[in-house]
Please model this.
Amino acid sequence: ATPTALLVGTGRGAQLGVLIKGPQVLESTRGIDTVVLDKTGTVTTGRMQLVDVRTAEGTDRAEALRVAGAVEHASEHPIARAISTAAEQETGELPPVADFTNLEGLGVQGVVDGRSVLAGRSALLSRWGLHLDGELAEAKAEAEAKGRTAIVLAWDGAARAVLVAADTVKPTSQQAISQLRDLGLTPVLLTGDNAAAADAVAAQVGIDEVIAEVMPADKVDVVKRLQGEGKAVAMVGDGVNDAAALAQADLGLSMGTGTDIAIEAGDLTLVRGDLRAAVDAIRLSRRTLTTIR
Ligand code: ADP
Ligand code: MG
Model:
């Protein structure tokens, strides 16, 4: 795709809040039958809030929050932003983190106050030969049943806390998805988040097909697999982790509110980050093509 966005479709694209990277893009929307939607930042606002901190026996809540905030401080992930913001508000200036590593699609690790810290998906604990049990396992299950994301915090060889983050569905997502169905398209929700949180969001917006717990590098394979089944796939996403899938899809739609890498990878940008603009774009291209032919 060309890096410079062109407005086509008799200027209607601009009015609809859609930037299209060239006339050839319209051609590719024609046969689309499946729309793969990233969850966080696409169907949901992606503005995560820390809503609960549950600690293991013997761990102080403020201490857990401070350590988690410090290790997440260096990450750009919406979950990381929510945790470090809440930690700063509640506990003041955060200690520095050393040896920071971003574990894409999993979480983060680093050294805070001489402690070796992990924060992220519970699967991370297996790196230390640990697994979540007791009260913390219950806290995680409870959070996920509500469609929230549980972040496990561990340091020095033990799980210390579960931090619960919540995201909200964009007010326009449900309407957009029902309009996609009206156009005869099948929506599929794709996310790296846990299956319970994904199912809760899917139920809210009316999506039946959910593909969850997909690692960032594997999102592109999901698109390839659907294409291998003979489907013509549109992908809608906002994150760095969506870029390869956006490029692979027959039509890549990126959120204008998302990362530059995703915007570069897409064929079409939804300027306001409103999913209804995706529906408008598909309708517009169908109409424009009918006029040309
Ligand atoms: P999505 O596909 O919904 O955009 P990601 O692939 O970015 O999600 O992340 C998948 C999961 O990995 C998150 O739901 C979270 O559990 C975990 N995760 C990723 N980054 C972080 C982080 N910085 N801190 C804590 N957990 C994280
Ligand atoms: Mg996302």
